[in-house]
Amino acid sequence: MEAQQVSAKLYVDDASGVTADDFIRAFHSWIQQNELDELLIDVTDYSHVHRGPGVLLIAHDAQYGMDEGEGRLGLLYLKKRDEPGPLADKLRDALSRALTACRLLEQTLDGRIAFRGDEILVRVHNRLIARNDAETLAGARPDIDAVTAALYDGVRPTVEPARDPKQMFSVRVKSSENPSVATLIERLGGKPDAAAARTPLRII
Amino acid sequence: MSVTAARRWKQHLAGSLPPELSDEIDVFETQIELRRTGKLDDKLFAETRLRRGVYGQRYDNGQRHDGFATRTLAFPSGDLEKGPGTKFDAPGMMRIKIPFGRLSPEQLEVLAELAEEYSDGILHVTTRQDIQLHFVHLDDTPTIMRRLAAFGITTREACGNTVRNVTACPLAGVCNGEGFDVTPYANALTYYLLGHPDTQNFGRKFKVAFSGCKQEACGLTSMHDLGFIATTRDGARGFEVYVGGGLGAVPHQAKLLSEFVPENEVLPLSQAVCRVFARLGEKKNRARARLKFLVAKLGIDELERLVAEERETIPPSKRWTAYLDDLDSHSDRPLRDPAPLRKGARPTGDGGAFDAWFATNVYAQRQPGYSVATIRLPLGDATADQFRAIAAIARAYTGDTVRATVEQNLVLRWVADADLPALYRELDAVGLAADGAGTMQDITACPGTDTCKLGIAASRGLASELTHQIGKRKQQLPDDVRGLRIKTSGCFNACGQHHIADIGFLGVSRNVKGRRVPHFQLVLGGEWKNNAGAYGLAIGAVPSKRVDDVLQRVTAHYVDNREDGESFQDFFKRTGRKATRALLEDLVVVPSYEDDPSFYSDWGDPREYTIGDLGVGECAGEVVTFTEFGLADSEREVFEAQVELDENRPAEAAQLAVKAMLEAAKALVRVQNTDVTDDPNDIVGEFRTRFYDTQLFHDPFAGAKFARYLFQAHANPPNGVDRDAARQYIEEAQLFIEAAHACYDRLSAAG
């Protein structure tokens, strides 16, 4: 299936030790230290909004956020601007960037936050190319299965679609296995510590 | 999104857009391509896109200070710009014009989709009842426009030198005190002036508002270029009409143009005002180009004569009165029969949450059995999911429209009283049942440094912090304190409408021992009611991190010392600004950076607020001291000018205001020439040569505007001035001094 504007969200395991302020500081430090392979522009805070996008790191054609949607905190990567292409490629890229950011955040916050590896929310932020219906799901399923098979080492996860047709096309991938973020990065062919926080934060 | 996706959307929506809107958007899409290939001038394109609601956003010049230094943001478009100093593919803001804030459920849903697909997922309600999306890319804007147009929304003339969104009281049609429902008139004027040839040649923007009554805030007509207040004469409908109001850098109260304009004259009269403004309004000097300056220059009597003369020359149009045959078509229709909220039907076991919400967020309509419920949006923000939920709730309970308010909230009208508990539960389920609408917690804030190019301080960050702190102590607040309104603006342009708040805050910066510190000017005594009946005056700048302390002290002072029934405004008029300033003396002191670095960053932003390398040598340090003294003296003098005005001595006030400007100018001149004398001619001459001609004083956005205040005051010293004129001298002096601070900051930063 062809897709664009794909997002991936990984959920926080335990967020009791961190606040929105920690994320604001972390994201500013990523801009200062050019931590990600993106043109990073600014940080914006929507933590005052109920179940909103939380704290966002705005990149030129993407955004990273500590998303509070569904009432569950997680890191959401969204590719905002790209040309249409195979969903499998788009999903792999979104997951790879989301996982890299999760790993970096774990390191930046000195282990005060950890992400779960057993659940991923995947969305396509383009209703023209992907309506939230059974037809889109049928078209998307082979690509989703192909990518998640690699992620979960052959253990087939469940794929739950969102039912509301007014929502974006959205599926929740759940696995019985709960691998670490580092493991998931490796399974996607990446290096888990390629983008580690290098220097202490220099912010007030 | 991509070019491919844009093409697909265009094909998908073909035939579902009004042809004229479709054509306009096609033209705009072509203009984007022309600009991309360098075939359209950047200035022309900038005004073109502004007139389509496509606005710039902070850092779109490709520069951002990351806390250590200014870094270049290497946008892929390189040097290509979409306007002077604005990178072509830097994300920007999209302002969506929502006439008088009226939104259907279908419109709410398409807005939600657009926020999710092109923006950061947030819909922001503005102080002009618009909706804004942030971090939007230029290439996506034609598709956004098409998807909006398919639901009857245009972004045309949302920005630029045009007639901006026509606002109106969100209670129009259901208010207990209104003369009549102003909705159809606001609607007719919106679409009559939209794209009208007589509104395309303004020197600046033009704002229109409708109010159903005189005594409430409603349309805030006193701060508009053109304001209408519903009234009747011998049973016939008409309007009291005001012109020449405005906030911004130099606030003006609107003047009465006519005590009664019959309803059939609303459109032609407005057209005549627009024609006079287009013909005689300032075009070159943007700082003097609003209608308020033309009114001040000509006088209201002359303007009235010119408008009447112009009115006679306009060729008649059927549209002037056609809508009057169908006034009822704009009335909302209730979905459900009226039903009272019975005793015992109120929810229990919620800790009083419903009762608290009911007390502040529910307004009993004129129509028995119905209420208006206000949805208090924090900082005017809502998510796409919340907008969809509101659409569903509106369909279920009111069957009709939702209206945005100038206090950055939404209201649901025609809720049957018996449905209020169920409505509350549904709102609560999506986080939209916060109580405190119209109270101290319901703070209005412009975007400020979060996203606005002109922001000086974090008005949203401050508002968020104050909301949080006030929330913690709200149970202890007396009712008349809790009911005070707070408004924050990130700069002198006053988009947060701080002038008309009981307690207003205006973002400024101060240089403390070579480092910048975010501050807010405290503005007290503005009047929200009576259609923005009075503007507050500045008390002084306080460090951003001490604003809540200031707020607590000011309100405690009022509570402890007020006389029986004395209003907040009357109290501060009686006790005077001098005493208020003295009350805050210890709070304006900024601790050293070493003692408390938190003062040197703004709310919600951990970056240091300073710019550049601030190390200074000893010689420079000495000069800095002279300058700092001089700037402090100028602030004192402008404060004294305010006191003179308070005590009804406008001539003295104006003289002091001019003196304050000279003091600030002299302070700056001393950076380069310590021998400057006290002779005003010498000061102005030196200032002109060293700071004006060299453009050192020029504000990055306002240019030479503030310097001209000094030259004008020096060339035409105040003589026989009235209160309005004196107030203007004071406002200009404050702005000049702020500009002097900014100039000095730049010089310090440059070493």
Write up what this structure looks like.
The complex is a heterodimer of chains A (204) and B (751). Chain A has helices at residues 20-32, 87-108, 134-151, 181-187; strands at 2-3, 6-12, 40-46, 54-59, 62-67, 74-79, 85-86, 115-124, 158-161, 169-174. Chain A has 204 residues and is an alpha+beta fold. Chain A has one domain (2-187). With 751 residues, chain B is an alpha+beta fold. Chain B has five domains: 3-99 and 119-149, no CATH class; 175-330, Sulfite Reductase Hemoprotein, domain 1 (2-Layer Sandwich); 333-438, Sulfite Reductase Hemoprotein, domain 2 (Alpha-Beta Complex), CATH 3.90.480.20; 445-614, 2-Layer Sandwich (Sulfite Reductase Hemoprotein, domain 1); 616-751, Nucleotidyltransferases  domain 2 (Four Helix Bundle (Hemerythrin (Met), subunit A)), CATH 1.20.120.330. Helices cover 40% and strands 16% of the residues of chain B. In chain B, the strands form seven sheets. A five-stranded antiparallel beta sheet of chain B has the order 1-6-9-8-17. In chain B, strands 7-18-19-16-15 form a five-stranded antiparallel beta sheet. In chain B, a hairpin with a 5-residue loop joins strand 8 (122-125) and strand 9 (131-136). The model of chain B is unreliable at 611-624 (pLDDT under 50). The interface between A and B is large, with 42 and 58 residues.
Task: For this entry, give a set of tags.
heterodimer; A: 204 residues; alpha+beta; 8-stranded antiparallel β-sheet; two-stranded antiparallel ribbon; disordered C terminus; B: 751 residues; Sulfite Reductase Hemoprotein, domain 1; Sulfite Reductase Hemoprotein, domain 2; 5-stranded antiparallel β-sheet; 24 helices; 40% helix; 16% strand
